[in-house]
Amino acid sequence: MTTRETLIGFLDPPDPLAAAAAAGVPSGVVTWSRSPAPAEWLTDGEDEGPIDVHRAAHAEGRSSEAVVRYGAGVAASEVVDRLLALGALAEQTGRLAAVRLTPAEGTDGRPGSWGVEDLAVTAVARLALGDGPLIRVDWRLVGAAAAQVAASFGATDWQIPPDDTADPDHLAAAIGRRAQERTV
Prior knowledge:
With 184 residues, the protein is an alpha/beta fold. It has helices at residues 4-11, 16-23, 51-59, 76-93, 115-129, 139-150, 168-174, and strands spanning 29-33, 42-43, 64-70, 96-103, 134-137, 157-159, 178-181.
């Protein structure tokens, strides 16, 4: 297992190539959907929900999707601590279905995240979460191109907005992957 300090080192300052190399990014299939998470799932929505709320949902037999905020105003240690906590939860319950990496809002002086930061966080998420939950970047905030590149850094799933016309087969093929529509 990679240490907390090593993971923080990949993010502060961000070093996405080192993080991706360490993550041993999976190849093959990237899953995708244009449908929201099933109604019975607990989803964090736009911001991070408490881990205990996810744990309670899992105890009730419900799967969940968690948000991890990063970027402007969020310390690398906070990102890593949340990812490690979610990784432990996924291992304990087996019900954490997905983790959505969502950049902070940002300011006029600094965007919510820099492109390199998006990729470094994706690779660190792969390291912290292993092969458990789906890992996706927030498509609405980073766009199709960044979501495509993120798959080369450890993202395993695309949640494509229903009104987005991007062709997942084309995007996946361009990075040597195969797109497979997810049914849940």
